[in-house]
């Protein structure tokens, strides 16, 4: 991202002007009908935000050539779903696992001072696997994070977050999760949640 870029979100989970693509993406990714555009100066961004979306604004949503949506009936309701809530990336993160059918919170981790979304997604999946193992359950786990799922499969979180005093806690949790994966076997499927077809994952924090 070019230094000094400003992102205007006219339609998204949260409308406004954002100074990083990560913040903007959080508002528009997977949001049906999102409208957003980048501007080189704050002045231009403010002027644009005060008016209707310009013709150059990007609009999210399925393309005309998009594949047929997945039938929600294909969801395995006897499962758990995990997701992360964040305030910045990197920033404060938290995660939880819920019953996919009822939304009941089965486990959760309080706010971690500094971490990344991907690290949180990884931890949430591993926590879910450990939780189900304790329950003697082979239920599947839904996650909307391709990266988190990949890291679990590899048994290694390839995060690039700098290691220092502020990030020591998240790294400790990640290393514990990696160790658990190396020491435990599981039969649970880890399935990608199809957000565009099914809506937000059931463990979503609802920060719209």
UniProtKB/TrEMBL annotation:
Q: Which domain of life is it from?
A: Bacteria
Q: Which GO terms describe its cellular component?
A: cytoplasm
Spell out the InterPro entries in the cross-references.
Answer: Ribosomal_bL9/RNase_H1_N, RNase_H, RNase_H1_N, RNase_H1_N_sf, RNase_H_bac, RNaseH-like_sf, RNaseH_domain, RNaseH_sf
Q: Which UniProt keywords apply?
A: Cytoplasm, Endonuclease, Hydrolase, Magnesium, Manganese, Metal-binding, Nuclease
Question: How are cofactors bound according to the entry's free-text note?
Answer: Binds 2 metal ions per subunit. Manganese or magnesium.
The reactions it catalyses are: Endonucleolytic cleavage to 5'-phosphomonoester
Which residues span the membrane? none
Which stretches does the entry tag as region Disordered? 47-66
Subcellular locations according to the entry = Cytoplasm
Q: Where does Mg(2+) 2 bind?
A: 121, 144
Q: What are this entry's molecular-function GO terms?
A: metal ion binding; nucleic acid binding; RNA-DNA hybrid ribonuclease activity
Give cofactor(s), names only. Answer: Mg(2+); Mn(2+)
Q: Which amino acid positions bind Mg(2+) 1, per UniProt? A: 83, 204
Q: Which residues form the RNase H type-1 domain?
A: 70-208
Catalytic activity, EC? 3.1.26.4
Could you provide one GO biological process annotation from this protein's UniProt record? DNA replication, removal of RNA primer
Function according to Swiss-Prot or TrEMBL: Endonuclease that specifically degrades the RNA of RNA-DNA hybrids.
Describe the family membership recorded for this protein in Swiss-Prot or TrEMBL: Belongs to the RNase H family.
Recorded protein name is Ribonuclease H
């Amino acid at each position: 991202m070019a230094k000094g870029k400003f992102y205007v979100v006219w339609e998204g989970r949260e409308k406004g002007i954002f100074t990083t693509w990560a913040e903007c993406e959080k508002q528009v990714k997977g949001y049906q009908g999102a409208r957003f555009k980048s501007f080189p100066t704050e002045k231009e961004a403010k002027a644009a935000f005060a008016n209707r979306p310009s013709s150059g604004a990007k609009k999210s949503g399925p393309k005309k050539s998009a594949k047929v949506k997945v039938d929600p009936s294909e969801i395995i309701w006897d499962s758990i779903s995990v997701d992360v809530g964040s305030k910045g990336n990197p920033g404060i993160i938290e995660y939880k696992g819920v019953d996919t059918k009822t939304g009941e919170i089965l486990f959760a981790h309080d706010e971690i001072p500094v971490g990344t979304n991907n690290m949180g997604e990884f931890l949430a999946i591993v926590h879910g696997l450990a939780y189900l193992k304790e329950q003697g359950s082979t239920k599947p786990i839904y996650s909307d994070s391709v990266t988190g799922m990949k890291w679990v499969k590899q048994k290694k979180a390839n995060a690039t977050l700098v290691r220092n005093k502020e990030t020591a806690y998240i790294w400790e949790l990640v290393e514990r999760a990696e160790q658990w994966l190396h020491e435990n076997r599981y039969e649970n499927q880890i399935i990608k949640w199809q957000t565009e077809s099914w809506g937000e994952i059931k463990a979503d924090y609802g920060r719209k």
